[in-house]
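RECORD TYPE: inverse folding
INPUT: structure tokens
STRUCTURE:
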């Protein structure tokens, strides 16, 4: 708030630096769940960025995505989708279709589709994001692991353990390389994977168990 006051007085209320601080303040309120304060700040920042698109294009797409995330949290899915599609189009036009930032937009939109039960659309976006991150960031990058993990959870819900398993395992392998042993997120994901494995094992045991404790094997022909 102090920085914002100084910038407004020294630079004027329409300066891009003012918009950047507005965006950062909105993010702080978002993390504090003070949602009623968030949207006006993002909207004001967007107004400033849009008035000077030649110098603030990168900040514009970031703030559009941030506002879209707020709408997702509030269940305003249609508004969120419009903004995410807009940001994706802008980034593709400026950066090309294979830039790592495109993968960020794809993942955000995929998560929105998951929230709307649009699983086919979400899977396609996750797979495209994975391809971009593999090619541009490398096979052991943290961001790639995040997308692999998201896809694994989606496949587990829709297509079962066998489809999800390689993506879970690959994501965990990357996380084990980039996070120190005992990292809280690594512990949580490892426990989640172990729980999934246990449930699958139990389901297989139930499926293959004899229907009666006295049932004997069929005689050999």
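DESIGNED SEQUENCE:
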């Amino acid at each position: 708030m102090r920085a914002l006051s100084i910038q407004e007085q020294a630079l004027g209320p329409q300066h891009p630096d003012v918009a950047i601080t507005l965006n950062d303040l909105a993010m702080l309120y978002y993390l504090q769940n003070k949602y009623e304060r968030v949207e006006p700040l993002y909207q004001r920042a967007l107004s400033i960025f849009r008035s000077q698109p030649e110098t603030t294009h990168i900040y514009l797409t970031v703030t559009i995505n941030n506002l879209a995330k707020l709408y997702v949290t509030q269940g305003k899915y249609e508004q969120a989708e419009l903004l995410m599609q807009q940001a994706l189009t802008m980034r593709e036009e400026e950066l090309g279709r294979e830039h790592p930032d495109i993968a960020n937009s794809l993942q955000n939109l995929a998560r929105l589709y998951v929230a709307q039960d649009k699983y086919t659309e979400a899977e396609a976006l996750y797979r495209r994001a994975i391809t971009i991150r593999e090619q541009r960031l490398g096979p052991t990058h943290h961001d790639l692991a995040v997308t692999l993990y998201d896809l694994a959870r989606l496949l587990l819900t829709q297509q079962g353990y066998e489809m999800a398993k390689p993506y879970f395992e690959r994501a965990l392998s990357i996380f084990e390389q980039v996070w120190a042993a005992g990292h809280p997120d690594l512990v949580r994901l490892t426990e989640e994977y172990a729980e999934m494995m246990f449930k699958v094992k139990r389901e297989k045991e139930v499926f293959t168990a004899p229907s009666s404790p006295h049932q004997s094997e069929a005689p050999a022909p």
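NOTES: Residues 211-221 have pLDDT under 50 and may be disordered.
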